[in-house]
Amino acid sequence: MTARLREIPYNYTSFSDREIVIRLLGAEAWQVLDKLRAERVTGRSARMLYEVLGDIWVVQRNPYLEDDLLANCDRREALVGALRHRLAEIEKRRQGNESVAQLLSAAHVAVERFAAAFADTAALRARVLRALSKHTRRDNICFDGLARVSHVTDATDWRVEYPFVVLCPDTEDEIPGLVKDCIALGLTIIPRGGGTGYTGGAVPLDARSAVINTEKLDRLAVPQELTLPGTDRPCATIHCGAGVVTRRVMEAAEEAGLVFAVDPTSADASCIGGNIAMNAGGKKAVLWGTALDNLASWKMVDPDGNWLEVERLGHNLGKIHDQALAKFRVRRSDSATGKPLSEEILEVPGSRFRKTGLGKDVTDKFLAGLPGVQKEGCDGIVTSARFILHRLPPVTRTVCLEFFGQVREAVPAIVEIKDYLEQRPDGAILAGLEHLDERYVRAVGYATKAKRHGRPKMVLLGDIVGEDEAAVMQAASQVVRIANARGGEGFIATSAEARKTFWLDRARTAAIARHTNAFKINEDVVIPLPRMGDYCDGIERINIELSTRNKLRLCDALAGFLQGELPLHAFDAGLDAKDLIGDRREQALELIGTVRQRWQWLLDNLDAPADSPPLPPGGEGRGEEATVFHTLQDHSVRVSWKQELKPQLEDLFDGVLFRPVLERIEAIHREVLRGRVFVALHMHAGDGNVHTNIPVNSDQYEMLQEANAAVDRIMALARNLGGVISGEHGIGITKLDYLQPEEIAPFVGYKNRIDPEGRFNRGKLLPGANLGNAYTPSFSLLGVESLILEQSEIGRISDMVKDCLRCGKCKPVCSTHVPRANLLYSPRNKILGTGLLVEAFLYEEQTRRGVSLAHFDEFNDIADHCTICHRCVKPCPVDIDTGDVSVAMRNFLREQGRKKFVPAKAAAMAFLTIKDPATIKLLRKGMIEWGYKAQRLGYRLAKWSGLAARSTRQPEATLGAPTLRTQVIHFINRPMPAGLPKRTSRALLDIEDAAIVPVIRDPRKVNEEDYDGDAVFYFPGCGSERLFSQVGLATQAMLFELGAQTVLPPGYLCCGYPQTAAGEADVGQKITTDNRVLFHRVANTLNYLDIKTVIVSCGTCMDQLQKYEFEKIFPGCRLLDIHEYLMEKGVKIEGVKGTRYLYHQPCHDPMKVHNGTKVAAQLLGSRVDHEIQLSDRCCGESGTLAVARPDVSTQVRFRKQEEIARDIARLPGNGPVKILTSCPSCLQGLHRYADDTGTDADYIVVELAKHLLGPDWLGNYVARANAGGIERVLL
């Protein structure tokens, strides 16, 4: 059946042939084709037509392919010529068949339209660039593949049309001009922020669309007390741009001791503009409502390109539906002149804003004509807003409730808890109540807190707040007792850290889609709390039916297999298969038939009484009205493959002879189980907002249809229980079909009145704008392409990124996602781009044109925009490490011979890899001494001429390969460090000989009778030894002072990390293997020393050395950073006056055993005036990034400089600021900020040496070591 569904080649999407033909040729052509397919008279001609449609379809949905054909006339003509040739061949073969002629006519139209589109696109791009560059910088106007694929979808991965252009304005003042000229150009405008929507609100429906990305509109003011219009007392407010990430607003409010109430689960990636357009909520909505309830005013651009400002009058500072009459002042003004155009007062009964009795409801898109809010970007673009802030009572307790019994018995606890806390006992208030069902508990890897076996069936997490600690604790205890009465167990977190730990699992709910390659149908409904038990029962019934149907399909698949030829491991017996099988086939078929009959009866009789004849006697405590459904729900009756079929079939087909049969049975089970649809629930339980998620394999057409049928039932169930079909996700394209015509009619009238031409989000929320034309990609559909993947690193890359959920939780921590610096290479965006490039490679591998070299450049571009910091993996719900993906991409490019050669990077890699002391001395002289001096001279010239300031003030976009001039400017726009030691640490100590193992110790201490010092193995690494040799010497000096015997590796060694990260996996692996063999020799040579600690002073060395398995080299040893070791030994400095310290934690933090910030704080002792503060963000050096891509490094540094300035402002006092770190690369990177920030940079261990060993510590240590402190052991 799958082959008949998808015979069109290169179709790696959820579309079947039907949808593609209708999209490209029209519905009538599909009817003709379907008729011909049924007659099977198409043959070779059909295959050629499918090839034509496949070529058009793959190019239309892949902007990388489109751009390549636009840029290369020969390749374009070759493709169009091939399409026309195939149609001509079909014409020769049609033999007068009029149906084929009808199809051919439609195909000719499609091909000519496809061919003409390239010229049209090129002409329109030129017009767009010319018109819009009057309002914003040219590099804010993006036609490239990465920008377009990043904005083609949201968190759903539904796609309809790629945007024609993506606009990233720098300020909100640019937007009116952009809007007016987009209208003049015939482009519909899609407002977009973080792209975290779950209903497709930001998915373009029209190919002539311009997405306006607001992420650069991220100006965030400090909280401010204002008396709002119509109120009689000041209120805390905060003003923010539409592109501010929600989490940043929450943090700004928290710093001021306040609370920002709009806290959706997507807070780490969603933006303020999107929160307003969707009327977002979150767990705090139970207390303070959604975005609408908390808005004081907002500013937007309307469909005429003019300013529209809305201000709420007489704000009740609470939930809007509690106010009898809500008033809004709506002002319009000319965006060019500022002249007022109109003003009106909008008066709306508070009860109008959401359905009575529900905490959330975003189904009313008209919303009494209130502009912007809940309109999903269909009536303008929000540019900024002011929200009210709340004061959270000082005492907070978090409760975690685990329920192990039946869900229907546990769910009423939600209502009981809500009713109890709504009375506010002694002032205790419910500030949030969240729910996870059994499937989510499993998906997030929930660690059960109760001392019971197995996972709970339901988990509730709640925050209880109040003014009085005893009252809050009493309320929390009562909530636990409510759970106990329902068969649950409760736990109370009191500290901030414990509460954060409790809430971590709730943040990983997107992981439910991991097993279906990250695609899920995400529906949120709102159910009246008293009916929540009925809703959960309804979902359980749907799940039981879906599971049972899946098992029935398994029975059918197994029966079909067993009726055919069975694979046997017959060895050389030469016996007839029939004799070997005997009556096993008949027994197995009888077993399957009997079990299938029982399962079918259960499915057909779910409403029959529980004591119906085929069932065992009823269980204790079961009510008289219990049905078969209830017996399945409480597992007293099971539909079980593992109990009823698997063991019996294993007994029947026991032995080596039948092993292939059992393997095939297991494979069939896995295949059928993969298509099982289920519904998982988590909810904002306090207001009845249930997120109903259905993970789906987008390559399984039948599974998608079954899931859609389940959604139909879920929506009907929600309505029947008095609920609504959306509480915060909106309507978009996924839910439009579930709104009744009379429900959407007011919005349609509003849209036709204010934007009849569809200038904003054309077609959205209007009849027909559903999922009918939407598709989602899937690499699970590969056929012959699988062979290509198996033979290439690209297959591994595809596998690494396939689980991405597009949730954007990686954005806040990513060094290459800095919108203000024109850097929009978040892991989410790069993964979307990588997926398209993989598709482009696979497609072109199968064509005569071959793979375009442009795709390798685009692959290089994505791989270059990564610092390999691995920070993205921590917040990722499905554990994708984009750093590892980037390394794999670099390896692929190297294997293909397409990796970009950068001389400066090659020289740096050579300096790190070479072992010969004379060559190192020569390179150090040329690169470090002379090269750094020349770079500083270039910096001074660039600073004097203004070049440096221009390149750093507002960095340009770094798409594609940079020019030599650009690279030079960015390389010299910040100074390299000066005053580096003239020689390496080994040269100073005369231990460069690779044939000897240096053992450094203080002979006076070692020879003492009561000596009990440690023997340590210190791996200094390239940065601490060849570049900043003072770091390696300071490490040795501190160990020397502690009386340790320090063993150094023989000769200059690199750990292998730089080569591995650069995509030279074979070189990195060779270095690693050689080093491990060498260290085993060292261990054997020095077996008289009991080495229990391996010391490093570099984060990347630590990452690489963790793969060395040192416990096998020095049994029982630990791998520690020097600073951790010194802290454990009690080393610290006290009472340093004058200097103010910041700690820069490296991306590759070498401190794996202890928290780096705490280690730094302890080593630096108690400050006179302040505690050491963490300075976040990447320094921009990132190993060789600063020489390989200095333009990207400039963008990364832009964000770090902001962070340093903010950190300095927070420090008390006015003394000099020193930034300390624990990474040689970061030390170099931090030196570059000296002129711009007035800071100095140093290593923690060097700072310790200066204060504990004196200002002349280096010379003194070298002298003492050279005076009998070094034992040279022949290896």
Polypeptide structure, described:
The structure is a single chain. The chain is built from 52 helices and 30 strands. The chain has 1275 residues and is α/β, with parallel strands linked by helices. The strands form six sheets. Strands 5-6-11-7-8-9-10 form a seven-stranded antiparallel sheet. It is globular.
Strand-pairing-aware structural class: alpha/beta
Q: Main beta sheet: strand number and arrangement?
A: 7 strands, antiparallel
**Shape descriptor:** globular
How is the largest sheet built, in terms of strand order?
A: 5-6-11-7-8-9-10
Q: If you average the pLDDT, what whole number results?
A: 89
User: What is the percentage of strand-forming residues?
Assistant: 5-15%
* Fraction in helix: 40-55%
Low-confidence stretches: none
Query: Roughly how many Å is the radius of gyration?
Result: 34 Å
Taking the alpha carbons of the first and last residues, their distance comes to 68 Å
Q: What is the tally of beta strands?
A: 30
Describe the structure using short key phrases.
1275 residues, 45% helix, seven-stranded antiparallel sheet, alpha/beta, 13% strand
